[in-house]
Specification:
The protein has 181 residues and is mainly α. The protein contains 6 helices and no strands.
């Protein structure tokens, strides 16, 4: 499996949590009581799985290797992806902050807005990576680069995620999907 295939598999998991957050925001907006733990858990997932693991693989390894192979890190697809990662982090910080306390009308509205904005941003971001950036990477990276990235991805998993973390997040998503169905 190519490193970009691994990243796309992770995108499918992230998209499931984005769907959870979107549904939770819609229900909250419709006046339905939503367990705050859905947003707390989603923020944890986005901080750890999506950012510390997935985005780390992209930023520290894939994007760096692409820049090494001549892709600009200042303008173009890599620069756009990096900026969108930063924009996403800002939304996740707000989701975490707002979901960690009792909400009044104002903070509930802010939570809904940040949840929707993040889901929209990351949904479009994933499409750009899957359809533009990753195919570009696969064209320019050598087989040796691909092997090196694969090993680097494995190290990220071992150091940052540890055993059973993926399984815990998959169970969390399944629980939230059932809760919001």
């Amino acid at each position: 499996m190519r490193p970009t295939d691994e990243l796309m598999e992770e995108h499918r998991v992230i998209e499931r949590m984005l769907d959870v957050v979107s549904k939770a925001a819609d229900q909250l907006d419709a006046g339905v009581k939503v367990d705050r733990e859905v947003f707390v858990g989603a923020a944890d997932f986005f901080k750890n799985f999506a950012d510390k693991c997935h985005h780390a693989k992209e930023e520290k390894l894939l994007f760096a290797k692409m820049v090494e192979r001549g892709v600009s890190g200042e303008v173009g697809p890599v620069a756009v992806m990096l900026r969108e990662h930063e924009d996403g982090r800002a939304h996740v910080r707000k989701i975490a902050e707002l979901s960690a306390r009792e909400t009044d009308d104002r903070s509930r509205s802010d939570l809904i807005n940040h949840a929707r904005a993040y889901a929209d941003l990351l949904g479009q971001h994933i499409q750009k990576e899957d359809n533009i950036l990753y195919p570009m990477a696969d064209r320019i990276l050598t087989p040796e680069d691909q092997d090196e990235l694969g090993k680097g991805f494995q190290e990220v998993e071992e150091k940052l995620m540890g055993p059973d973390v993926h399984e815990r997040y998959h169970r969390m998503i399944e629980d939230f999907e059932k809760k919001l169905a």
